[in-house]
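S.,

Sequence below, as promised.
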Amino acid sequence: MSENSIDFKIYGGRSLYGEITTNYSKNGAMGLLCGALLNRGKTILHGIPKIEEVHRIIEVLTSIGVTVEWIGTNSLQIQPPKSLKLEQINRQSANKTRTILMFLGPLIHWYKSFSLPHSQGCSLGKRTAVAHIYAFAELGVTIKTTSNSYEVKVGQLRPKDIVLYEAGDTATENILLAAAKIPGRTTIRFATCNYMVQELCFFLQKCGVKVDGVGTSTLTVHGVPEIDQDVEYHNSEDPIESMMFLSAAVVTKSQLTIKRCPIDFLALELYKLKKMGLKYKQSKRYKAYNSYTDLVDITVLPSNLKAPEEKIHPLPYPGINIDNLPFFVPIAAVAKGETLIHDWVYENRAIYYLELTKLGVRMILADPHRVYVTGPTDFKPAQIVCPPALRPAMIILIAMLAADGVSILRNVYSISRGYEEIATRLNSLGAKIEVLLG
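The prediction came back faster than expected:
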């Protein structure tokens, strides 16, 4: 799919019904694809979603000489060459994804010096790489930022006790990737223990790297000198997609069953919704294919919600996930009363929430981080251009599903970065979305 080439025509005001299975994790897949660069042997990854973000990373990997093949529906076989061709990197694809930043961790074990293009991805305000740069310096790696690249020099690599400058998912993953092949014990403090970080830890353990403290904010990596073996691993399901379907069900007042939901990464979100008046049923826990992640099936029932007395805001796991927060905005729009949504992490994202006012949502922007949403809302159809950010784009689509009439959502590339065949999947639940090719 090329950027800015596809629009959605949404016939809203329809209830959803039936059941949907949560797709495999986008962010989990990103870490695993980067992790495959650590292994000189063959890596088979199952549960890789066919989304634009994955396609961009595959384009980068193949451009530098890595053999990447799809086997079956959602599995990849990855085999690095004896020597990479980093000078031939596909800069256009690299620039479209922030994941390129996580190539730093593996590449320090391939080169003594190299250049890596700047990362982009969602436009969510200032997102610096300072936490990465400071942590790599502790390991013996110097990174200088130029106008369009990171210039990297690798000195004597050494295990260290590191305190991350800030708790970031990609920073934690990057240092995990780097420390995996630095013999000795590296400790990462103020690490995040989010789902994609745990996924990468489980993968590294499969590669023979011992990682202590998985699921906590202090990780200890027992690095090994080399990883050269055939490794097979299964990526687990995406809690952010589960939350998206939960939000869609709530906003359209539907009875919908979402299967294979990673419950540990949705527990507080569900508890907040329960206190707002959401009625739902939950199955017993069962394991994902990776043998670690706990899953449940959740059936959402039509409910009358009320605004919470306290603000809704994200925190590192086990708090509300930063990527789940936007889905509370359309939920707040159907709840009776005023809800304060505090998106303190990103400078620009709360501003994108204002696009929902075009669909009839009553909203006040207090500052670049806080919005007050007043419900319930009589959603109106509209024509909107997708913002250049994945989750804000998706909540516009959710609101359009609830708006009685015909809406147009233009340039949906940002949605396709993280959701596979989303129009087809929503249509299978009773939505009516036409895909318009530009």
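Residues 6-23+237-437 form a domain with the UDP-n-acetylglucosamine1-carboxyvinyl-transferase; Chain fold (CATH 3.65.10.10).

Coffee later?
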